[in-house]
Amino acid sequence: MRLFSIVIICTLFALYSYIYFKLRSAIGPGWKWTALYTLLSFFIIMGSRILWIVNLEAYPGLRKILSCSVYMGMAFFFILFTAFFFIDLLRFLVWLTDLLLSACFSDLFPSPKMRAVLAIGFAFFACTYGWFEALAVRPVYIAIATDRLPRGVDKLRIAHITDVHLGWVIQEERLGRILDVVRAAQPDMLVSTGDLVDGDMEEREAEVALFRGLNLPLGMYAVTGNHEYYAGIDQAIAFKEHAGMQLLRNEALRVGGIILAGMDDPTAQRFGGTLTPEIDVLAPLPENRFVLLLKHQPTVNPDSIGLFDLQLSGHTHRGQIWPFYWLTRMVYDYRPGLRALAPSKSGEAYASGAARESRVFVSNGSGTWGPPIRFFAPPQVGIIDIVRK
After folding, report:
1. In this structure, what is the dihedral angle of CA atoms 107, 110, 115, 121, given to the nearest 10 degrees?
2. How far is residue 209's CA from residue 245's CA, in Å, rounded to a whole number?
3. For 264-290, what is each residue's pLDDT tens digit?
4. N or C of the chain: less Cβ packing under 10 Å?
């Protein structure tokens, strides 16, 4: 953990230093603005540490203001760094073109001052746009046809939320926007695939009331996410249960004619928990019922393919702020959206000859982590219709 902290600090130092020298080339040297820049950088870096190591429970207003200020500052500087980086990359390509073609395209490039103006303007635009994009939660409709619904059940509608990150920044106002989308879709049940909680949620009755006010016919179900372990798994579970959710922890149950199977996030092992092998949960399930698998992280066990019909996941936020999307693509195989899965010839379902047509749906997420903005990664609520084939 100490090594990780050192890497983060060194990375931030390099990032803020790069931005400083870009600004210095545009503004010129000066101790006043240098001191201001240094203080602002120090506030953002140390403010993020203070939020985690200092107990501000007695000052919720101060904590929310500090959280929004620090995280918005982090987002602004990251986007500013990205803008400067792409400008420098373009300058390099232009320089290379001049070198190869004996051209003079570099003379057309704007001055350092104008480049700084463009980069800062873009960062302000991205943060402003991202604030409103994060508020514009939208439904994403998916229909799955199956012959594994029981007689008398022709359609089942499920609302899927994930990565809400209730805590210091995301509170009842933003949760209300998310649940308004759920309510408008009139689902039979709600499922949450982790990271619903990302802070101390004790005595947060406003959020509890919003969930309990849904009154869904088949109830609400949830699995754990990695941030819920970081925030304190016991209080996260207590909040979910108080809100009316049933936790699925490496287990399955019948609901509304289908089977819900839920797996704990692998982060449990880092906090002393144990994980049941996924195949042990899925293999005994009846072949004639639709199996909905709930997992926080969008990973697929090859041996499980064919043992479930649809997996719902989140975790990646679609990067939340472009270009983080490309970093998530490097780590996870499955992009946001619905994907069919090729059956594994080594899996138990293939061997038994009873393999299902498995799919995985990865959500962009419904809330935000850190900065309360999204940039080219709109928040969504999945509305899944399971219909008789």
Report:
1. -150
2. 12
3. 999 999 998 888 999 999 999 999 999
4. N
Tokens of 374: 């999204």
Partners of 157 in beta bridges = 385
Q: Residues with Cβ < 8 Å from 134, sequence gap 6 or more?
A: 174, 367, 368, 372, 373, 374, 379
Its sign, for the CA torsion 345, 346, 347, 349, is: positive
CB atoms within 10 A of CB 303: 19
pLDDT of residue 346: 56
**Percent of the residues in the chain that have a pLDDT greater than 90, as a whole number:** 77
Domains of the chain with CATH codes: 2-133 (no CATH), 139-388 (3.60.21)
Average pLDDT over residues 226-238: 95
Euclidean distance between CA atoms 297 and 363, whole angstroms: 10
Whether pLDDT at 2 is above 80: no
Q: What pairing do the DSSP bridges indicate for beta strands 189-193 and 155-161?
A: parallel
Tokens read off for 2: 């100490």
